[in-house]
């Protein structure tokens, strides 16, 4: 099972590197120490919601996009996404429609 702080750190690092930015760039814009940001990215520290919001603002990436990517990584680890087709597997079993059965029983 993945660990939330590790997955979150990986997603934040991927976003930063995808923009070609350094830890120093983001730490300055987010007003967080470079060392602490590095520890968050490496999954050694938990990011508070306020810190995460500040980092997302510095990255100019919506927090929902970061959390969505983390969620997808968890779904893949939990086997809820078929990685061959990237199709989401149902989490809850389908609830059968009982109305037709009820109507048949009333007519009898």
What does the model show?
- It comes from Demequina lutea.
- There is one protein chain.
- This protein has 108 residues and is mainly α.
- The chain has a single domain (4-88), classed as lambda repressor-like DNA-binding domains (434 Repressor (Amino-terminal Domain)), CATH 1.10.260.40.
- The chain has helices spanning 4-18, 23-30, 34-41, 49-59, 63-77, 99-107; strands spanning 81-82, 87-88.
- It has a two-stranded antiparallel ribbon.
- Strand 1 (81-82) and strand 2 form a beta hairpin.
- Helix 1 crosses helix 5 and helix 2 packs across helix 4.
- Residues 91-96 have low confidence and may be disordered.
Q: Strand order of the main beta sheet, please?
A: 1-2
Largest sheet: 2 strands, antiparallel
Oligomer state equals single chain
Name the shape in a single word. elongated
Domain count: the total is: 1
Helicity level: 55-70%
Q: Measure the end-to-end span.
A: 52 Å
Tally of separate helices:
6
CATH-defined superfamily: lambda repressor-like DNA-binding domains
Helix-strand pattern, N to C? HHHHHEEH
Radius of gyration: 21 Å
Taking all residues together, what is the mean pLDDT? 84
Number of E-state strands: 2
Name of the level-1 CATH class: Mainly Alpha
Structural class: mainly alpha
Q: Provide the low-confidence segments as ranges.
A: 91-96
CATH level 3 topology = 434 Repressor (Amino-terminal Domain)
């Amino acid at each position: 099972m993945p660990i939330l702080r590790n997955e979150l750190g990986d997603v934040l690092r991927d976003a930063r590197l995808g923009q070609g930015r350094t830890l120093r760039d983001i730490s300055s814009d987010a007003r967080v120490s470079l060392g602490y940001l590095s520890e968050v990215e490496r999954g050694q520290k938990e990011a508070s919601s306020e810190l995460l919001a500040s980092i997302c603002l510095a990255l100019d990436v919506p927090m929902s996009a970061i959390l969505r990517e983390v969620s997808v990584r968890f779904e893949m680890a939990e086997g809820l996404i078929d990685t061959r087709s990237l199709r989401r597997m149902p989490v809850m079993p389908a609830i059968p429609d009982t109305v037709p059965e009820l109507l048949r029983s009333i007519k009898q």
